[in-house]
Design brief:
There is one protein chain. With 446 residues, this protein is α/β, with parallel strands linked by helices. Among the domains are: 113 residues, no CATH class; 189 residues, CofD-like domains (Rossmann fold, 3-Layer(aba) Sandwich). It has 17 helices and ten strands. Helix 13 packs parallel to helix 15. The protein starts with 11 loop residues before the first helix and ends in a 10-residue tail after the last helix. 35% of the residues are buried.
Length: 446
């Protein structure tokens, strides 16, 4: 049976538009086209010298006649130069365009235009260096939106998770929990429609794999093969063809501890998964051991960042475990990057019950003992139905007198207790550009 191939024929007008678009600023192609033209011109001059010598020394009359017609000698010299020059440039441009389509076709998705693909890649390549800090679904949502704006993304993820599949792997095998890292890798994947869905696939209990996800098992296997958790994460990123990088906050096996007030008594709760289940007022959290060393590439990414985004995510079990790594917190304080805090749109049962926006900020600053954020980003759209016990997180009336506050509609219409990835990313990038001005070309060639 003959395989059908897509119809790739285009009109002359479309071809002309496509060629013209290759010369728009920012593509990085013009310099190489000029280099090819210069080389072709020199080659043409050399060939012309040879032809001219034959033309002048020819002893047979038919040589003269043929060369006269080929060189359009019967026309004015200026007109001949325009004709030959125009044909030469057109052939070179068409040749370059077709070569690029042939070479890049294996990397293009069906229906994707080459010019749009190259233009988008170049634009994102010059995007700001963004570091996103957190964990859980909130960080993955943020990354899915930001990857449409920049390729220079670094996700720094907590390793305090001890529940579910990650907790089982951590307890039985002794490696760092891969769950949040797996979610971020899938979010940054270029092929999130297929390969990352396989990576996120979770086996049922009846399969004898205790509900583990394939990605967790994959990272675990790579850790065993390479002998290094961070190398396993890097290799997983290459398999998924991610844009950016995902880094653990620390390589130490840390445990999250909380002091919880319940029935007017303080109670010590151990473990990230046990804290929300304790159903009390969380007074503070800390890590044990209390002074874990930060992962050096994470510190380097923070110090080199143009923009640091903390949140959204579970305040006590996703955000603070990262910020409680002393070297990481100090790097954020020392970084010259613009620092945003993205507040959750809804409270989290057992963790931030009845919290407003200011409660989130004050709790972070209480733990860090430092004023950290340049801008607080929060939601101002309150339409939707929540599960029982979940409320909107709203800013206090006087909050903008204490912090720079920006409010916008950030809600996912299908899941109003979560952020919409596109709304959130667009808001963050617009705020960043408004605060810093147009990004310079330091991250890529103009």
């Amino acid at each position: 049976m003959q395989e059908k191939t897509p119809n790739t024929k285009i009109s002359l007008k479309q071809l002309f538009k496509e060629i013209i678009r290759w010369f728009t600023p920012g593509i990085g192609l013009k310099r190489w086209v000029l280099l090819i033209l210069a080389g072709t011109t020199l080659l043409g001059i050399g060939f012309a010298v040879l032809v001219l010598d034959v033309y002048r020394t020819a002893t047979h009359p038919w040589w003269v006649t043929v060369l006269s017609y080929i060189s359009l000698r019967f026309l004015d010299r200026t007109l001949r130069a325009i004709i030959f020059g125009g044909l030469g440039i057109a052939l070179i441009v068409i040749g370059i365009w077709r070569i690029n389509r042939t070479l890049l076709r294996p990397f293009l998705r069906p229906g994707q235009l080459l010019m749009e693909s190259v233009s988008t890649y170049r634009k994102k390549e010059r995007g700001p260096k963004v570091v996103a800090i957190g964990g859980g679904h909130g960080l993955a949502t943020l990354l899915r939106g930001l990857k449409l704006h920049t390729n220079n993304l670094t996700a720094i993820v907590t390793v305090a998770d001890d529940g579910g599949s990650s907790g089982e792997i951590r307890k039985n095998i002794g490696i760092l929990p891969p769950g949040d890292i797996r979610n971020c890798l899938a979010a940054l994947s270029n092929d999130e429609e297929l390969l990352s869905h396989v990576f996120q696939y979770r086996f049922g209990e009846s399969a004898g794999l205790n509900g583990h996800s394939l990605g967790n098992l994959f990272i675990t296997a790579l850790t065993d093969m390479t002998g290094s958790f961070e190398e396993a994460v890097a290799e997983s990123g290459r398999v998924l063809a991610i844009q950016g990088q995902v880094l653990p906050a620390t390589l130490h096996n840390v445990k999250l501890i909380a002091s919880i007030e319940k029935n007017n008594k303080d109670k010590r709760v151990e473990g990230e998964s046990a804290i929300p289940e304790a159903a009390g007022r969380i007074k503070r959290v800390w890590l044990e051991p209390s002074n874990p060393k930060a992962f050096p590439p994470a510190i380097q990414a923070i110090l080199n960042a143009d923009l640091i985004v903390i949140g959204p995510g579970s305040l006590f079990t996703s955000l603070l475990p990262n910020l409680l790594v002393p070297d990481l917190a100090q790097a954020i304080k020392s970084s010259k990057a613009v620092k945003f805090y993205v507040c959750n749109v809804a409270t989290q049962k057992g963790e931030t019950d009845h919290f407003c926006v200011g409660d989130h900020i004050r709790m972070i600053e209480k733990h860090l003992q430092h004023r950290l954020f340049d801008i607080i980003v929060c939601n101002n759209q309150y339409k939707g139905t929540f599960p029982q016990g979940v409320e909107w997180v709203k800013p206090e009336d006087d909050l903008d007198q204490h912090w720079a506050l920006y409010q916008a509609n950030l809600v996912d219409s299908n899941n109003p207790w979560r952020h919409d990835k596109n709304k959130l990313a667009s808001t963050i990038m617009e705020l960043y550009l408004e605060k810093t001005g147009p990004l310079s070309s330091k991250n890529g060639n103009p």
